[in-house]
Amino acid sequence: MYLAKRILMLLLVIVASCNPPKEVSTQPEKKAVKNVIFMVGDGMGLTQATAGLVANDFKLNLERVQYVGLSKTFSSDALITDSAAGATAFSIGEKSYNGAIGVMPDSTSRETILETAGAKGLATGLVVVCTITHATPGSFYAHQPSRNMHEEIASDMIDSPLNYFVGGGRKYFATRKDSSSILPALEEKGFSFVESLEAFKSSASEKIGYFIADGEPAPVAEGRGPILSDAVEAMLPKLASDPEGFFLVVEGSQIDWGGHSNDSDYITSEMIDFDNAIGKVLDFAAKDGNTLVVITADHETGGYSLTESEDPWKFEPKFTTGHHTATMVPVYAFGAGSEAFAGIYHNTEIYHKMMKAYGWK
Ligand SMILES: [Zn+2]
To answer: Cofactor(s) for this protein (predicted)?
Structure first.
């Protein structure tokens, strides 16, 4: 048997080496991805996902992903990033300083992937459960030297190609410090503002904004409701009706805030809420076939760990800090082109991998 196998192998090697080389093609032909859905669990380290898994009867939609990688989250000026530098790494593919919103370390603007998508005729959307001017969503449509410049970040939406958004922060648009409103300027650019998800769904406008709060939306445990997954579900058909494709950013914004307040129940309830949105997105992508889903975090928050408790199937939460940590965070990918996300790489690579998936690099 062994000898027969050896002879067979030898024959195969000879046959292979006798074959003339096929026409040289440097790149295997690959179909570009049509849609990318980028999901950020702010502060969602591996522990946050594990805690959510345990709290949700040992199951998460997140488990349906096909490839997992690790992202090195450092910013340009610190081992420990903030959400602005973290999101800017995703949106422009460059490491910048903590606090930077869509700008380089020297404060100059770079086109974000959302802006590129818009310029190429794709539909774009943002769904968050913080203010829409917050560091993560802001870094995709705005260019400002500081994350604290909420009104300036809001104003940048006027010239943004953004089609649809759902999030908090109405006050930065409608009742500004000088008592002005930029809603008319946005309406002039085609925006319709709605007061409910029903109105959002029935609007035929190509640009729709829905403010779910004047400032920050409430935690899900305090009555926010399933707005994150409902908004994703309402927005997906609108985005998918664009024949060119779309780019959507969805953020589980408050997982981070649970970490900052060292509140394990806050973390797990927000994690499960985010996971429900992940479920809607994965259902869509599985059916569509041309959609890439990337789910990651900007950083871990809280130095959260799950230690032994009296009940062998429960954990005692422990925290080492009220701030972010420098630990690498997982990158989860599903659907068309998802294999590119295996491995260990800088957070900036996530931008480059998404651009490549669209065939833009
Ligand atoms: Zn934070």
So the answer is: Mg(2+); Zn(2+)
Q: Once rounded to an integer, what is the mean pLDDT over residues 102-123?
A: 98
237 C-alpha to ligand 1 centroid (Å): 31
Look-up of token digits 């196998």: 5
Taking the C-alpha atoms of residue 140 and residue 156, their distance in angstroms, rounded to an integer, is 10
**Which of these, 133, 80, 139, lies nearest to 109 by C-alpha position?**
139
DSSP of 248-307: EEEEETTHHHHHHTT-HHHHHHHHHHHHHHHHHHHHHHHHHSSEEEEEE-S-EES--EEE
Instruction: Calculate the dihedral angle through the C-alpha atoms of 206, 250, 356, 48, rounding to the nearest 10 degrees.
Output: 180
When pLDDT is cut at 50, 70 and 90, the band that residue 197 belongs to is very high
Distance 93 CA to ligand 1 centre (A): 20
**pLDDT averaged over every residue in the chain:** 94
**Taking the chain, what is the end-to-end CA distance rounded to the nearest angstrom?**
50
Give me the mean pLDDT over the 237-260 stretch: 98
How would residue 17 be classed by pLDDT, with cut points 50, 70 and 90? very low
Domains belonging to the chain, first-starting first, are 31-358 (3.40.720.10)
- Cα-to-centroid distance, 327 and ligand 1 (Å): 14
Buried b (16+ CB within 10 A) or exposed e, 122-150: bbbbbbbbbbbbbbbbbbbbbbbbbbebb
146 carries an active-site annotation: no
Q: Which of these, 96, 111, 44, lies nearest to 332 by C-alpha position? A: 44
| Separation of CA 20 from chain center | 47
